[in-house]
Structure to design on (239 residues):
């Protein structure tokens, strides 16, 4: 390349040479440098922007375990809330009915796989109402007390009583869905019940059915007089 052929009024710049036509250099400069940025952008195998959100993993949180979670307990709603106890998106659901507990991500995955295996070949959509976002940390066997909380073991979900775990929607017979949820309940710890869309919500362990209102359940207990309360106690000696 001869620099004398370039204009002398402006200093030489290699970046300006990339934008000059190839005929100014005999058509050999661009081929020796490589393909243009536009050519590279056309061959990019991925999209730089997408309005479709990427699916999140319901068996592990996106943030990871940056701090150690305490064991804790499932949240018990004492203000009369019935959130999470009814079917919202699907037509059928499976609901915990005995007591709250912590379910590991592996157990939740086994339960979902049992439903999918039973409904193989059917047209349906499975909704998950819980997510494993609590880290469980354990220590090794025969470790003395102290020495820290332990290392990360697995992810788990705190499932409260009367909470919906899975929902199902599709053109399926009810008996087939019942059988699929039965297999999933056998794989999961605890006792579960089959619910439909439109079934009454549950406050604690009490179903808010016809004749039972939220106001009656939130009303404080009636304080009986002392003589009525004492009359209900068993007698310690014969009269």
């Amino acid at each position: 390349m001869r620099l004398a052929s370039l204009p002398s009024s402006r200093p030489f710049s290699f970046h300006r040479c990339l934008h000059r036509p190839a005929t100014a250099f005999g058509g050999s400069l661009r081929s020796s440098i490589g393909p243009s940025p536009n050519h590279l952008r056309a061959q990019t195998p991925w999209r730089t922007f997408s309005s479709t959100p990427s699916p999140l993993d319901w068996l592990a949180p996106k943030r990871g375990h940056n701090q150690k979670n305490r064991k804790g307990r499932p949240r018990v709603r004492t203000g009369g809330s019935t959130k999470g106890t009814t079917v919202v998106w699907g037509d059928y659901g499976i609901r915990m009915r005995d007591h709250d507990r912590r379910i590991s991500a592996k157990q939740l995955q086994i339960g979902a796989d049992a439903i999918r295996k039973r409904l193989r070949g059917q047209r349906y959509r499975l909704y998950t109402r819980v997510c494993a976002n609590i880290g469980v940390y354990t220590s090794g066997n025969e470790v003395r007390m102290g020495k820290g909380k332990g290392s990360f073991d697995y992810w788990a979900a705190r499932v409260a009583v009367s909470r919906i775990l899975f929902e199902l929607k599709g053109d399926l017979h009810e008996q087939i869905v019942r059988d699929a949820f039965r297999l999933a309940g056998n794989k999961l710890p605890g006792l579960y019940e089959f619910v439909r869309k439109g079934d009454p919500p549950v406050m604690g362990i009490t179903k808010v059915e016809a004749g039972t209102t939220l106001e009656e359940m939130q009303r404080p207990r009636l304080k009986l007089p002392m003589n009525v309360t004492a009359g209900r106690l068993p007698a310690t000696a014969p009269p």
